[in-house]
Automatic annotation (TrEMBL):
Pfam families in alphabetical order: Glyco_hydro_88
Gene3D superfamilies membership: 1.50.10.10
Family indicated by similarity: Belongs to the glycosyl hydrolase 88 family.
One example of a Gene Ontology biological process annotation: polysaccharide catabolic process
Species for this entry: Pseudolycoriella hygida
Name this polypeptide is given: Unsaturated glucuronyl hydrolase
Length: 413
């Protein structure tokens, strides 16, 4: 008994005691976002990215951008982590500027926008008036559901995305917007929302995942008339048959979230497949190149810290769902590397941006990389929150503490 507990404690010690200092990283995040919040206090423009060498984020983001919810989401996470009312007041004020987006039927990202703002607001304040906004947003996304194909139409067709007449375009990222549908189903009792999300998830398994675990496609075009697949391609990654890192991170996060809502084993299985591919294809420092198949041995290719942050949060969720310690360790390895001077927004003396990370890739093909990205920061805080307070971690931590106490008791007798 004694020996068993001792070895158990030692294993836990080895596994869970790392150099990564949560409190130090939280203080750093607070410092950076205090500067940013001050800068945006009387400014209702929107931010998305930032040049590391500028003291201000780029404020030219359109109010109709898909990214307008993430700054509010970051403020809500800071409130959750600090319990400081300052962040709550900032978040409440900022989210009013995007309230109208609950009616947006023009693309699939109403899920990202409303869940990172009003979704967090509901969870953290318990104010039930936010429920109606979430349900309305789900109705908006439901208008994009194409029954014949069984999927949400992510984008309308346009020259910019090579969508032609009769296409129903679905991007891997769309998995992230299903959280809205599952949440709205639970809040309203309208099961249609959940059924649509389940069908979309099943279609993603069928069509986005490649055979034999060869990563995922970014875009699948269905035929509006027949519902069959027309073609598959990559909008944001390196090549049609490559795996764009953030796309895979969205898929991983989306499937573990779909599992949390539905407890469907297949969704968990595909989250694990996505995780395996992601981790197996990382470079030595755990931060992915923007695409897993880009020619980084031949020519400089940028990393994507945002994909790393999203994946670290998803891996912690996966640890909680499966109890497999490897996912916790993988998440921790990613977090440790992210907070090294290599990727921190205070990592070089020339950096001035009040962000948490630099070296995010927005869109490599458009030359938009090595920048701060708002959702990279937000998902890092999500991960930090789960790493410190998430029930999965806490349970393991409590087991470890109990083990330690028992060993001491046995030593005394
Ligand atoms: C549930 O939501 C769907 C999609 O918006 C809608 O068509 C349907 O009328 C709703 N059902 C109820 C009972 O409100
Ligand atoms: C991170 O971005 C900076 C420029 O801001 C660049 O000099 C550096 O090489 C990038 N790091 C990596 C690993 O690509």
């Amino acid at each position: 008994m004694n020996v068993l507990l001792l070895s158990f404690t030692l294993i836990n010690l080895l596994v869970f005691c790392k150099s990564f200092d949560v409190h130090q990283e939280l203080s750093y995040a607070i410092r950076q976002y205090s500067l940013l919040a001050k800068n945006l206090e009387d400014d209702d423009r929107f931010i998305y990215t930032g040049d590391p060498n500028n003291a201000e984020w780029d404020k030219s983001t359109d109010s109709m951008s898909w990214t307008v919810g993430f700054y509010t989401g970051t403020l809500w996470k800071l409130y959750k982590l600090t319990k400081d009312d300052y962040w709550k007041q900032q978040a409440l004020r900022k989210q009013e500027t995007i309230r109208h987006r609950q009616f947006d039927e023009s693309n699939h990202d109403v899920g990202f926008i409303i869940m990172s703002s009003f979704g967090n607001a509901l969870t953290l304040t318990g104010d039930k008036s936010f429920e109606a906004i979430i349900i309305q947003a789900a109705h908006s996304l439901a208008t994009r559901y194409h029954s014949k194909s069984g999927v949400f139409r992510s984008w309308d067709n346009g020259a910019w995305n090579s969508g032609v007449d009769g296409d129903v375009l679905v991007i891997a990222d769309n998995m992230m917007n299903l959280d809205l549908m599952f949440t709205a189903a639970a809040l309203s009792g309208n099961e249609t929302f959940a059924q649509m999300a389940i069908s979309h998830s099943e279609k993603t398994i069928e069509n986005h995942f490649r055979e034999n675990g060869q990563g995922v496609f970014h875009v699948v075009a269905f035929d509006e008339t027949t519902g069959n697949v027309r073609r598959k391609f990559n909008y944001q990654g390196y090549a049609d048959d490559s795996t764009w890192a953030r796309g895979l991170a969205w898929v991983l996060h989306g499937f573990v979230t779909a599992y949390e809502h539905t407890k469907t084993r297949t969704f968990l299985e595909y989250a694990e497949r996505a995780a395996e591919y992601f981790v197996d294809h990382l470079p030595e420092d755990w931060i992915p190149y923007y695409d897993f198949d880009c020619p980084f041995t031949e020519v400089y290719q940028p990393r994507d810290t945002s994909a790393a942050a999203i994946a670290s949060h998803a891996l912690l969720k996966l640890f909680k769902a499966t109890g497999k310690v490897k996912y916790f360790q993988q998440a921790e390895n990613i977090l440790e590397s992210l907070v090294s001077p290599n990727y921190r927004a205070d990592g070089k003396s020339s950096y001035k941006i009040p962000a948490i990370f630099v070296n995010g890739t927005v869109f490599f093909n458009a030359g938009n990389f090595n920048t701060a990205i708002i959702y990279g920061d937000m998902y890092f805080l999500e991960a930090l929150d789960m790493y410190t307070t998430g029930s999965g971690y806490k349970n393991t931590f409590i087991t470890w503490m109990l083990g330690l106490i028992f060993v001491h008791i046995f030593r005394i007798f």
